[in-house]
Amino acid sequence: MIKGMGKLLRSIFLVDLLQGMWVTFRTQHPKNIVTEQYPAERPKVAERYRGAPRLNINPENGETLCISCNLCALACPENLIVVTSERNEQTRRKELITFTYDTSRCMFCGLCEDACPVDALELTQDFELASYSREGAIWDRQMLEEGPRPTKYLA
Amino acid sequence: MADATFLDSTELVLNMGPQHPSTHGVLRVILKLDGEKVLGADCVIGYLHRGVEKIGENRTYQMFAPYVDRMDYVASVSNGLGYCLAVEKLLNVEAPPRAQAVRVILTELNRIASHLLWLGTHALDIGAMTPVFYCLREREYALNIFEKYCGARLTTHAFRIGGLQYETYDGFEEDCRAFCDMFLPRVDEYEELLTGNRIWIDRLRNVGILNIEDCKAFGVTGPVLRAAGAKWDLRKAQPYSGYEQYDFEIPIGENGDTYDRYLVRMEEMRQACRIIRQAVDKLPSGPIMGKVPKVMKPPVGEAYVSIEAPKGELGYFIVSDGSTQPYRLRVRPPSFVNLQALDRMCRGGLVADVVAIIGTLDIVLGEIDR
Asked: What ipTM was predicted for this assembly?
């Protein structure tokens, strides 16, 4: 009887409805909003994020850090890195000529950057790799050094 | 009847999938129906076949590690752990204690993430819309820890053979503790939404019963086996990666129906939190990489290592011929074996129950087809 009265009062005063509305209201607080407004708001990816590859250059003289040792190409499970080099007869050092990286086949496992002895090849925090053609997914040395240029959207 | 056609027959053959939203990927089930009643269910698999085992024979041991993440992509950390343990057994090396503890933390986080995705989609299949949003929200916290630790959210490639590639980041322990503190009340919240829900109970209780004898006959493992009442968990039965140091319970069910499997998985998430807390509290210091050669040439032999993945027993069988590449690599995926019980579980039930049963098996087609 008492239990029945309680149930009746709950339905008269719309307790369940108000409880539900309270949950909705509570999640309006900015702290509780989890939806990201991409591309207006750019997500902050982690420092170790494995995204677009980059071939680092020496900031002082603009020369590449790559010593064309070919270890990244050997470490890659998909064999998507092609390095060509030429021996400079005067300095007796190998010089990098081309560096091709096929991002369409890359699975971003990070084995190439682990293999690099001079930290020249690095997977960066850029994650926008879309391109309008398949050829656009194959990055040459210039693209690797300058990084991708995704379209900027105005908020 | 002399000129009977298929129209006279009461039996109807119905294709469910491979594009059906509740088959969790590209599974095709051929249902034999008598009205609403299911007379039999045949699974057609292979739509996602990539030949992962064959790829393994053409890659060196280190190179193959990222591929195993792509089998059970919901629980990629567990896949990586199983593979690394198998190769470590071949090489006869062991990961240092710190690496083992970090592995346990990440695997248990992954177990939670996997169960959360299961719970959300399973509830969505049954018709409960709300849990999936909650589950994916919490799953995001776990994935963020993966991203901060190893740089990827889903296909993590977190472990290397012999230990870890990455040292934990600053604030790793705090993140894990904060996750556990945040997560335990949220499990109660899900239970509040579902456990006592009349529709949920009506749709799940006594649906898809698989008793303990059937489980053993089919080789079913994981939560499905535990829901039938068997106290079998490889983390307790044959501890690996230092699981013997942690104190946790194995939740078991009674009837082996869909509702019990739900309860078992909910409790497993709580136990996973318990393991994470213990592992974080006594995270040892020291090296993270064992002594492994740069060019791995395991001695001639074979090794089988199985671990308790979120979906059941995940085994790796590797045969080495002494070269840098495996001679043969075989994976025993839990989803593949568990799926074989689908026919037994569906038979006699209704069409709507098939959706619930596929959901409760927690299958990932990437792992079944490999």
From this structure: 0.77
